[in-house]
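Students often ask why inverse folding is considered easier than folding. One informal answer: many sequences map to the same fold, so there is more than one right answer. In these notes we will look at a single instance of the problem. The structure comes first.
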């Protein structure tokens, strides 16, 4: 009888730990989905920020009049040319008074479908799109790699739904935001009458953005 009781206790502990971990994984997955939705809905006109515009757009208003853009003028898939143009556009960001702030790109966020393209573009010693047919042009260097552009490289976000969209996080402060009001807490409690065991988890957080200059994007061609 003592041996059987010990086995039951151990089984209960194993099941309790398994379900607690499963619940924590489910909570973590939900958090990743909600975070990625900021980018998945970046150009949805009904998903607006404090300036009344979607996160990625060409008509973000300035306090002194006029607008600024954080999207490519012509939508393009990820390649060396579109990435270079994105970095040029980022460097042209202006503040609320229309003054240049000399912003730079720091990190690229891509879906899993673009990881091999991103690796070739950012880490090949030679250009992936040489500028001509001459022998010298075929040996064009990878300017972004040599200049140390996008110093934090790229990160794959497996929760992005658009397979050809890409985003570049910039050095502008107060861009994307994640507020955590209550960190995750898990608990287990048993019911004496039924013998059932209940597992619960609780967490409070929100995702959003303050300054759209914190990110630049393209929805793909």
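Output (designed amino acids):
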């Amino acid at each position: 009888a003592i041996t059987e009781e010990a086995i039951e206790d151990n089984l209960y502990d194993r099941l309790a730990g398994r379900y607690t971990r499963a619940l924590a994984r489910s909570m973590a997955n939900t958090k990743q989905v909600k975070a990625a939705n900021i980018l998945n809905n970046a150009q949805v006109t009904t998903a607006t920020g404090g300036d009344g515009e979607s996160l990625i757009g060409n008509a973000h208003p300035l306090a002194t009049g006029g607008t600024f853009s954080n999207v490519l003028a012509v939508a393009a898939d990820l390649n060396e040319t579109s990435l270079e143009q994105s970095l040029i556009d980022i460097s042209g960001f202006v503040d609320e008074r229309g003054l240049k702030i000399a912003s730079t790109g720091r990190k690229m966020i891509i879906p899993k479908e673009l990881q091999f393209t991103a690796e070739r573009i950012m880490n090949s010693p030679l250009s992936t799109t040489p500028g001509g047919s001459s022998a010298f042009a075929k040996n064009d260097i990878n300017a972004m790699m040599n200049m140390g552009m996008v110093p934090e490289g790229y990160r794959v976000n497996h929760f992005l739904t658009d397979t050809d969209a890409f985003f570049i996080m910039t050095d502008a402060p107060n861009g994307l935001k994640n507020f955590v009001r209550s960190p995750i807490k898990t608990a287990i409690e048993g019911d004496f009458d039924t013998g059932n065991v209940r597992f619960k988890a609780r967490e409070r957080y929100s995702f959003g953005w303050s300054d759209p200059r914190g990110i630049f994007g393209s929805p793909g061609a």
